[in-house]
Amino acid sequence: MIGQTISKGPMTPLKPNHIMPEHDHHVQESIFTGAEIGMTMVGSTAATQGFNAIPLTWHSHDRHEVLMLLRGGAAYEFKNGTELELAGGHMIVVPARVLHRGSKDVRMPSVICAVNFDIAHPVTRHSPFTKKEMAWIAAQFQSRRPRLLSMSPTLRRMAQSLHQMILQQRKSPRTADGTASMRLLVASIILEVARHTSGSHQRSTADAVTLAKEYMENRFTEPLPMNEVAQKAGCSRAHLFLVFKRETGMSPNDWLQRRRIKAATDLLRTTDRKLEDIAAACGFTSAPYFCHVFRKYTGTTPGEHRQKS
C-alpha cells in the first residue's frame, strides 16, 4: 500500500507517478503522496534504501522527477540511448513522459530520496508558490533531456532531512506540524533543484571539464580510475570523454598522463631520486610502465632526459 514501508517481492506494473524496483527482496521504500502532505503539485515523495539493485522496467511519469542519491551508487538508462551513472551526492532530473529504467549493471547499495511534481500545475490558494514563482520554476524544467547534476551541500542536507522525515513520519502517528514541515521541505527542495538546473545546460559542459581537471590535478600522484573522475565531474564516463575531447582536444586519460609526465620531468631535473620512486610519486603503477609512457610522450627515456637536463 502506498504510504507504508514495504519489503518487496515480485510486483505488479508500476503506477504512473511512483518508481519502484520490478522485483527485489532487499528494497525498502516509504512514500507520501502529495495529497497526504497537502501539496497537490506533487505526485509523491519517497525514501528508498536498496541492498541488492535490480533493474527496473521501462517506464515514464506524467510529472518531472528528481532522484537524489544520498549514498551508494546507481545507474539509469533512457530510451534515447543516454546512460547516466550516479554516486552519492548526485541527482538526476527526469523530464515528464521520458522513458527510463534502472541499469542492469547496478550492484551497489543505494539510499535515494525522490520527488516528482507537476511544473504545469495550476496555482491555487493552497499552492506553495505564486504564479510568477511557478512560471520561473517551470521555465527551469523545459529541457527534455535527462540531467545528471551534483547536489550542493544545501540540497544534500535537505534531501537527507526529507529522507529521515519520511521514514520517521511512517513509524509514528502523523502530526500537523510534521506534515507542515514535510510540505515546506519538499517545496524548498523543488526550488533548490530549479536553481541548480537554471542555466545548467550552458554550464554543464564547462563545469564537467573544470571539475575533472581540478580533481585530476589534486590526485594525479595516485592511481586514478576514469570512472572516479567522471563521478566527481557529475557525469558519466562516456559523457566526460566526449565533452573533454571537445573542450581540450585530448582525452581525460591523455591530460592525466601529460600532467604526470610534467611532474616526472621536474623530478628528473631537480632530484637524484630513483626511477621507481619517481614513478610512484607521479602516479605510475611501475617503473617499466612509467618508462613506456615517458618515451611515448617525450621521445626519450627518463634516463636520457636526466642526462640532457
Any overview of this molecule?
The chain contains 10 helices and 9 strands. It is α+β, with helices and mostly antiparallel strands and 309 residues long. It has 2 domains: 193 residues, Jelly Rolls, CATH 2.60.120; 110 residues, Arc Repressor Mutant, subunit A (Orthogonal Bundle), CATH 1.10.10. Strands 1, 2, 3, 4, 5, 6, 7, 8 and 9 form a 9-stranded antiparallel sheet that branches. The longest helix has 22 residues.
Layout: helices, strands, pairs:
Layout (H helix, E strand, L loop, with lengths): L5 E2 L19 E7 L8 E9 L13 E15 L4 E5 L2 E5 L5 E3 L7 E8 L13 H10 L6 E4 L2 H19 L4 H22 L2 H20 L6 H8 L3 H12 L3 H19 L4 H7 L5 H12 L3 H7 L1
Antiparallel strand pairs: 1-2, 2-3, 3-8, 4-5, 4-6, 4-7, 4-8, 6-9
Helix pairs in contact: 2-3, 4-5, 4-6, 4-7, 8-9
Core attributes:
309 residues, alpha+beta, Arc Repressor Mutant, subunit A, 2 domains, nine-stranded antiparallel beta sheet, 10 helices, elongated
From the 3D structure, determine the CATH topology of the largest domain.
Jelly Rolls
- What's the count of strands? 9
Order of helices and strands: EEEEEEEEHEHHHHHHHHH
Using the 3D structure, state the CATH architecture of the largest domain: Sandwich
Q: Please give the count of helices.
A: 10
On the 0 to 100 scale, the average pLDDT is 83
What percent of residues are in strands? 15-25%
Q: Based on Cα principal axes, name the global outline.
A: elongated
Number of domains: 2
CATH class of the largest domain: Mainly Beta
Secondary structure category: alpha+beta
Helix share of residues?
Answer: 40-55%
Q: Runs with pLDDT <50, length 5+?
A: 1-25
Please identify which CATH superfamily of the largest domain we are dealing with.
Regulatory protein AraC
Largest sheet: 9 strands, antiparallel
Rg, alpha carbons:
24 Å
Give the end-to-end Cα distance, rounded to a whole number of Å: 74 Å
